[in-house]
Amino acid sequence: METGLKNRVAVVAASSQGIGKATALAFADEGAHLALCARQQGPLEAVAREASERFRVQTFTGAFDVSDDSAVRGFVQAAHEKFGRIDVCVTNAGGPPAKPFLSTTMEEWERAWQLNLRSIVSFAQAVLPYMQQQKWGRIVTLTSYTVKQPVPELVLSNSIRAGVMGLVRSLAGQFGPDGITVNNVGPGFTSTGRAMEIIEKRAAAKGVSVEQAEHDLNQDIPIRRMATPEEVAAAIVWLSSVPAASITGQTLLVDGGSYRGL
Q1: DSSP run (H or E) holding 249
Q2: How far is it, in rounded angstroms, from Cα 49 to Cα 234?
Q3: CA angle 60, 62, 68 (to 5 degrees)
Q4: 9-189+228-254, which class in CATH?
């Protein structure tokens, strides 16, 4: 399928590892130039070099925490100054800690809101004026299948990410007339460090080995395995493509069939 992303510019947050890195490289494979950000400059530069060497695309990087509103806005402005356009924005951030509700602190709730919801507001407010000018744009938020089916250990994520759904729906309705789509991708358990954190907590709680806990988790997934970062990235790229122009305000789960609802 022709995605129509060649020579467009994609902003990808938290792109130094995991799903963010896979997403950056997937866009580069389609010929899109990249504006990449993450907290650590070294790993981020490594991803930028790989994209540029493998796919001959231009890259721009910035190291900062996406909960820093002024840093987000400054990065987006600098990326636009470099490329002259911003076509796609993929918001992404590390998930809140996995812990029981009564063990959470108000500081953790505040941090979760800043990192996993407010950061999306920052990116959206920064990129939308540029997208409106060109009458074309794609915003894809990256959350979790917990927006549809809560995971017991992830009460912070279950709660905060539900707010992202309201934001996605609101923005899709408001900016559709400008040729801008806003969608959400909700991965299920994916082969990343975040999944292993949850598996280790489950193993400790049940008094079983990590290997057994991982086996049990896989048995609960209809395809009997976790998704790969590349599979999640493929969904993000597709929602960002030209042919996906009529899809907006939606959540696409990449969860191997784990969500049991209709």
Answers
A1: none
A2: 21
A3: 140
A4: alpha beta
DSSP single-letter state for residue 177: G
The Cβ of residue 99 has, within 10 Å, a number of other Cβ atoms equal to 15
Packing angle between helix 155-175 and helix 119-134, nearest 10 degrees?
20
- Cα distance between residue 142 and residue 233, in whole Å: 10
Largest CA distance in the chain: 57
| Residue of 88, 76, 92 lying closest to 19 (CA atoms) | 92
Residue intervals in the chain for CATH 3.40.50.720: 9-189+228-254
Question: Does residue 258 contact residue 20 with C-beta atoms inside 8 Å?
Answer: no
Q: 14 and 40 in contact (C-beta within 8 Å)?
A: no
> Amino acid identity of 61?
T
- Tell me the helices (H) and strands (E) count for the chain, helix number first: 9, 7
Residues of the chain with pLDDT under 70: none
How far apart are the C-alpha atoms of 93 and 195, rounded to whole Å? 15
Q: What are phi and psi of 11, to 5 degrees?
A: -90, 125
State residue 153's pLDDT score.
Answer: 80
Residue 261, SS3 per DSSP: coil
Predicted local confidence at residue 146, as pLDDT:
87
Structure tokens at 90: 């993929």
**Residues 6 or more apart whose Cβ sits within 8 Å of residue 78:** 60, 62
Model-wide pTM > 0.85: yes
CB burial of 216-225 (b: ≥16 within 10 Å; e: otherwise) equals: ebeeebeeee
